[in-house]
Design brief:
It contains 15 helices and no strands. It is mainly α. Helix 12 packs antiparallel against helix 13. The chain starts with a helix and ends with a helix.
């Protein structure tokens, strides 16, 4: 009888333990489900905030772009625009070098909060300065410089934060939506000036341009809402990676060595610089024709914003329809001819169709091909670069090559006009010299594209050999 009682007790104990274990497993499963649901809700909320941030930022960029450019040209004259570009590009070099050192070392959420606070204070200060009638010859250049740096820094910080929050599989789902917020904001910003003019309410567009303090207050208020949103931002970011310490010069040296070892990278770097010489010369010609047309009664802000809306939408339509298929069908070594040839055609349009339509159409086709064809092709080359040096190589091939090409063109345009003023010569000849220089830049870009085509396969081989050499030397150092 006692043995039966003991056996029954053991069975009951085992049943209780099984029931307890089952209950604990169920509770753990419920906790995992609840945690998963909570994280999904937090990531959805984070996406909503990120989309709103992208929309607000690009809306403000669109507005400031129109106000700053139209105001600067109207106040100081088109001939001073190259010097503003030179200042902007020089500032880009300094800020880009600083940001490269900090972007992977600061927590993403902290960086975006600091940027939003900075922009809130900046636009609130600009609103006050406009309200108290500080000279617009000072304020419009400052606005443009702010616009240029904001256009570089803010998207970089925003996308770095997004990349830290979402996994690669989630990024495929969410990032197109985030990109649409970016596009929508810029379209709304430019439409403030385009739709009002096209719908017959030009006085509203004029009032916006003549009262920039209102737009600056609106911009500050939007960034103020951003401060509130990011104060409640969900804690969904992953742990922050520890980065290897290196100086700016060391980064540049390492990246330069990577580029110099491969003819393809060297040629692409040169191609970026030379094409941006041509594009900057065409851009100045575009602004010059808009300025002339506005003097004849057309609204600068309406034409400029309509142009920007067109060059935002058409490259997207191209990519959504035939762009990806063409990129797959055409070898990259031949694809680099497209933009130089387009610049050559654009220069022909500007030379043989002088005036508004020639100037607008010349830049229009060049920028559409640049954004719709060249940029996707250009971005694809980074798969050849190791992850650990991809950001620095991207900066040298993209940012620094672009800055150097644009800076050369800006100084050329400004220097030619300075000389012509000293000689009391007409600026019509300076305009022709600009287009001849753009023609030479297009021919130079075609030659560089031919070098890319000729050395493409050898470059891939030398890249693999160079990587093996670097790996071997690293192993030798470890052995020693």
């Amino acid at each position: 009888m006692q043995n039966d009682t003991v056996g029954t007790g053991l069975y009951r104990k085992k049943d209780i333990e099984k029931a307890l274990a089952k209950r604990l497993a169920e509770e753990a499963q419920e906790e995992r489900i609840a945690l998963s649901e909570r994280r999904a809700k937090e990531k959805t909320l984070a996406l909503i905030i990120l989309i709103g941030t992208a929309l607000v930022n690009t809306f403000v960029l669109g507005v400031v772009d129109v106000v700053a450019i139209s105001g600067f040209i109207g106040d100081t004259g088109i001939e001073n625009l190259p010097w503003l570009w030179a200042a902007e590009l020089s500032l880009n070099l300094v800020i880009s070098a600083t940001v490269i050192q900090l972007i992977d070392k600061l927590p993403r959420i902290k960086m975006i909060r600091v940027l939003i606070l900075t922009l809130f204070l900046t636009y609130a200060s600009l609103a006050g300065l406009f309200y108290f009638s500080v000279s617009t010859k000072i304020l419009y250049p400052i606005m443009y410089l702010i616009y240029a740096q904001q256009g570089i820094l803010f998207p970089m910080a925003l996308w770095n934060l997004a990349n830290q929050i979402y996994t690669p599989s989630e990024a495929k789902k969410y990032f197109p939506v985030l990109s649409s917020g970016d596009l929508l904001g810029r379209l709304i910003g430019y439409s403030l000036f385009t739709l009002t003019g096209l719908l017959g309410h030009a006085e509203f567009s004029d009032a916006l341009i003549e009262n920039p303090s209102v737009l600056m207050i609106l911009s500050a208020a939007l960034y103020g809402l951003g401060l509130l949103a990011y104060a409640r931002f969900p804690q969904v970011q992953t742990s922050f990676p520890v980065q290897e310490e290196s100086t700016w010069l060391e980064n540049i040296k390492t990246s330069y060595e990577t580029i110099s070892e491969v003819p393809f990278f060297r040629n692409v770097s040169a191609l970026v610089a030379v094409t941006w010489i041509g594009l900057t010369l065409l851009l100045y010609n575009f602004y010059s024709t808009l300025d002339t047309a506005s003097a004849e009664g057309l609204q600068f802000q309406t034409m400029y914003s309509a142009y920007n809306i067109s060059v935002l939408l058409l490259p997207l339509l191209f990519q959504w329809t035939i762009g990806d298929d063409l990129l797959e069908r055409i070898s990259p070594k031949n694809g680099y001819f497209f933009l130089p040839v387009t610049i050559l055609v654009a220069v022909g349009l500007a030379l043989f169709i002088p005036g508004l339509w020639g100037g607008v159409s010349a830049l229009f086709i060049a920028i559409v091909v640049y954004r719709g064809w060249y940029m996707p092709l250009y971005q694809s080359l980074y798969v050849l670069v190791p992850q650990e040096s991809r950001g620095r190589v991207r900066s040298l091939l993209g940012s620094y090559s672009y800055v150097m090409g644009s800076l050369i063109a800006a100084l050329f345009i400004g220097g030619i006009r300075l000389l012509f003023n000293v000689w009391d010569a007409g600026l019509e000849s300076a305009h022709t010299i600009d287009l001849v220089a753009a023609l030479l830049a297009a021919l130079g870009a075609i030659y560089i594209a031919s070098r890319i085509r000729a050395t493409y396969e050898d470059s891939l081989l030398s890249w693999r050999v160079a990587r093996r050499k670097r790996t071997s030397s690293a192993l030798d150092k470890l052995d020693s």
